[in-house]
């Protein structure tokens, strides 16, 4: 069975990517199997560029087929910020808590208690021989200043997806999030492309 590496250092993404790929006939492993690898340099201008940069970089580092994800939150009243800078919104040493605090601060500065927002995800797969497959997904909703729930990761406690009025992404089960999320949708498309390649 071909080995595929889930090439991300974000444990929340690993969980969602592993779940979405579990039914496929591949030996899906995490980056942890390869020890401490230096971070990829995510200097692309789009989610798609960064996903491909990471997949190609980790494919080189591991010698195995890799799947990478680049994703983020776009908030309408902040003109689409934090966007591709979502992981480092609060600065170089940012984590989920400081990024969320920064987001709340920016919304308050803008004088609003909620805003339309969307999550975006680009996925890239780079095979052992360099062949590339890509997929994208989007999830629309609202950001509100009242956090709820402990599932998911990142901005999920503040993101109210349009499919579940009154619940945040952090109040959904993994299966519910996969059905509607940017990553779930992108992974579904990628899984179909991977399966088609197996035939
Ligand atoms: O680059 P890798 O190693 O994959 O991990 P990362 O966390 O740095 O990932 P990104 O560079 O793609 O940044 C994405 C950020 O966007 C946010 N994000 C993406 N998808 C999310 C989701 O499903 N729920 C909540 N926040 C999400 C979260 O803050 C992530 O850290
Ligand atoms: Mg990153």
UniProtKB/TrEMBL annotation:
Name of the protein in question: dITP/XTP pyrophosphatase
Binding annotation for Mg(2+): 70
Reaction(s) catalysed by this chain's protein: dITP + H2O = dIMP + diphosphate + H(+); XTP + H2O = XMP + diphosphate + H(+); ITP + H2O = IMP + diphosphate + H(+)
Domain of life: Bacteria
Keywords: Hydrolase, Magnesium, Metal-binding, Nucleotide metabolism, Nucleotide-binding
Binding-site positions, substrate: 8-13, 71, 153-156, 177, 182-183
Enzyme nomenclature, EC number: 3.6.1.66
Gene Ontology, cellular component aspect: cytosol
GO biological process, one term: purine nucleoside triphosphate catabolic process
Active site: 70
Family statement drawn from the similarity comment of this UniProt entry: Belongs to the HAM1 NTPase family.
Keyword Cell wall biogenesis/degradation among UniProt keywords: no
Named cofactor requirement(s): Mg(2+)
Broad EC category: hydrolase
Function noted in UniProt: Pyrophosphatase that catalyzes the hydrolysis of nucleoside triphosphates to their monophosphate derivatives, with a high preference for the non-canonical purine nucleotides XTP (xanthosine triphosphate), dITP (deoxyinosine triphosphate) and ITP. Seems to function as a house-cleaning enzyme that removes non-canonical purine nucleotides from the nucleotide pool, thus preventing their incorporation into DNA/RNA and avoiding chromosomal lesions.
Pfam families tied to this protein: Ham1p_like
InterPro entries: dITP/XTP_pyrophosphatase, ITPase-like_fam, RdgB/HAM1
UniProt GO molecular function: dITP diphosphatase activity; ITP diphosphatase activity; metal ion binding; nucleotide binding; ribonucleoside triphosphate phosphatase activity; XTP diphosphatase activity
CDD domains in the cross-refs: HAM1
Cofactor annotation comment: Binds 1 Mg(2+) ion per subunit.
The protein's assembly and partners: Homodimer.
């Amino acid at each position: 069975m071909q080995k595929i590496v889930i090439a991300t250092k974000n444990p929340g993404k690993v969980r969602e990517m592993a779940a979405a790929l579990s039914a496929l006939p591949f030996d899906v492993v995490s980056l942890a199997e390869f020890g401490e690898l230096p971070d990829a340099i995510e200097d692309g201008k789009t989610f798609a560029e960064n996903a491909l940069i990471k997949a190609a970089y980790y494919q080189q580092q591991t010698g195995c087929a890799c799947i990478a994800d680049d994703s983020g939150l776009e908030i309408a009243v902040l003109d689409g910020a934090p966007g591709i800078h979502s992981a480092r919104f609060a600065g170089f040493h940012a984590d989920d808590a400081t990024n969320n605090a920064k987001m709340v601060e920016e919304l308050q500065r803008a004088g609003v208690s909620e805003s339309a927002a969307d999550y975006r995800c680009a996925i890239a797969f780079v095979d052992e021989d360099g062949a590339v497959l890509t997929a994208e997904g989007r999830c629309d909703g609202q950001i509100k200043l009242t956090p709820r729930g402990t599932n998911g990761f990142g901005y999920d406690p503040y993101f109210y997806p349009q499919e579940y009025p009154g619940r945040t992404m952090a109040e959904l089960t993994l299966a519910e999030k996969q059905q509607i999320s940017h990553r779930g949708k992108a992974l579904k498309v990628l899984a179909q492309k991977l399966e088609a390649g197996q035939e």
